[in-house]
Amino acid sequence: MTVAVRGVATVLVVLAVVVGCRSLTGSGPSTSADDATITASVKTKLVADKAANLTRVDVDTNDRTVYLNGTVDSAEQKARAEHLAWQAQGVKSVVNNLHVPKR
C-alpha cells in the first residue's frame, strides 16, 4: 500500500510543478524549452557569421518571439542579425532593438 501512496504523491508533485510553471509564466515547460532552443540557435547563427561580427548581440526569446538587444557597428549588421534570427526554426517574430551609434 505504501508504494501506491508514493506513486500517487509523485504524480501529484509533478502535476503541481507543471501547473505552477504555467501559472507563473503563462506557458508550460515545453514552451520554455522551445524558447531556450530558439535562443541557442540564434546565438549560434550570430557567432558563426564571421563577416558581420555579431558576437555582442544579446538574444532573448519569449513565446517564440526573439528579442535582439545591444549595439552593432552598422545598419547592415543590424539587418543581418535580424535575418539570421528569422532563420532559426520555430521563430514566430523578431523584435530588433539593436542600436547603431551615430558617427
Largest sheet: 3 strands, mixed
CATH class descriptor name of the domain at 28-99 = Alpha Beta
Query: How would you state the average pLDDT, rounded?
Result: 82
Q: What portion of the residues fall into strands of 2 or more residues?
A: 15-25%
- Please compute the radius of gyration using only Cα atoms: 19 Å
Query: Which class of secondary structure composition applies to the elements?
Result: alpha+beta
* Overall morphology: elongated
Given as residue ranges, the uncertain stretches (5+ residues, pLDDT < 50) are none
Please report the number of helical segments: 3
Task: Please give the order of strands in the largest beta sheet.
Answer: 1-2-3
Query: How many extended strands?
Result: 3
SSE sequence, one letter per element: HHEEHE
Structural commentary:
The protein has a domain at 28-99: Histidine-containing Protein, Chain: A, CATH 3.30.1340. The longest helix has 24 residues, at 2-25. Helix 2 (29-48) packs across helix 3. The protein has helices at 2-25, 29-48, 75-87; strands at 58-62, 65-71, 93-99. It has 103 residues and is of the alpha+beta class. Helices cover 55% and strands 18% of the residues.
List the topology elements:
Elements: H1 2-25, H2 29-48, E1 58-62, E2 65-71, H3 75-87, E3 93-99
Helix pairs in contact: 2-3
